[in-house]
């Protein structure tokens, strides 16, 4: 498994993958040395830089996360949430065919190993509150604001 680190506005992103695809993305609190990028991760690094620069709304990468069949179903459903939009955990559960599976869906959402690429940050509470994000709610808030179609401009 190859590793690349890139600096982002929300911390150092650690990308792991190999010829089979991107396996995980985690945003760390600690800074890591940024060096050359493994060939198998260069496209992922470029797409992340484009995303954080505001020039990419959809990732086009080969993905290879580890998880159960159920988790992978949830993660596939997350990929269908459009950039700049949010849905609730309940809505996601209903889309997957069982509103009563909300806790299992939320658990699978929280175990998503491909932060940002598989947009688990776009899932919010039924009441509209930001709830649960493995990277911290301040990162979830930043990502949702970054993706917001209505950008706040400064008055002065």
The gist of it:
This protein has 5 helices and 5 strands; from the N terminus they run βββααβααβα.
Report what the structure shows:
With 156 residues, the protein is of the alpha+beta class. It is 31% helix and 17% strand. The protein is built from five helices and five strands. It has helices spanning 42-52, 69-78, 89-95, 102-110, 137-147; strands at residues 2-8, 11-18, 21-28, 87-88, 123-124. Strands 1-2-3 form a three-stranded antiparallel beta sheet, covered by helices on one side. A two-stranded parallel ribbon has the order 4-5. A hairpin with a 2-residue loop joins strand 1 (2-8) and strand 2. The longest helix has 11 residues, at 42-52.
User: What is the first-to-last residue Cα distance?
Assistant: 48 Å
Largest sheet: 3 strands, antiparallel
Strand order of the largest sheet: 1-2-3
Look at the helices and sheets and give the structural class: alpha+beta
* Helix content percent band: 25-40%
The total of helices stands at: 5
In the predicted model, the low-confidence regions spanning at least 5 consecutive residues are: none
Residue fraction in strands? 15-25%
Q: Could you report the average pLDDT, rounded to the nearest whole number?
A: 92
Shape: globular
Radius of gyration: 16 Å
* Elements, N to C (H/E): EEEHHEHHEH
- Count the E strands: 5
List the helices and strands and how they pair.
Elements lengths: L1 E7 L2 E8 L2 E8 L13 H11 L16 H10 L8 E2 H7 L6 H9 L12 E2 L12 H11 L9
Parallel strand pairs: 4-5
Antiparallel strand pairs: 1-2, 2-3
């Amino acid at each position: 498994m190859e590793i690349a680190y890139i600096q982002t506005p929300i911390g150092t992103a650690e990308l792991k993958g190999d010829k089979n695809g991107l396996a995980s993305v985690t945003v760390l609190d600690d800074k890591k040395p940024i060096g050359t990028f493994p060939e198998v991760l260069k496209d992922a690094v470029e797409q992340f830089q484009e995303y954080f620069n505001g020039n990419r709304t959809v990732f086009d990468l080969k993905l290879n996360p580890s998880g159960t069949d159920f988790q992978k179903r949830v993660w596939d459903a997350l990929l269908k949430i459009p950039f700049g939009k949010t849905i609730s955990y309940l809505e996601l559960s209903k889309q997957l065919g069982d509103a009563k599976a909300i806790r299992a869906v939320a658990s699978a959402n929280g175990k998503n190993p491909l932060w940002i690429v598989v947009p688990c940050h776009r899932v919010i509470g039924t009441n509209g509150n930001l709830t649960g994000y493995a990277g911290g709610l301040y990162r979830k808030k930043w990502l949702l604001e970054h993706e917001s179609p209505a950008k706040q401009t400064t008055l002065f």
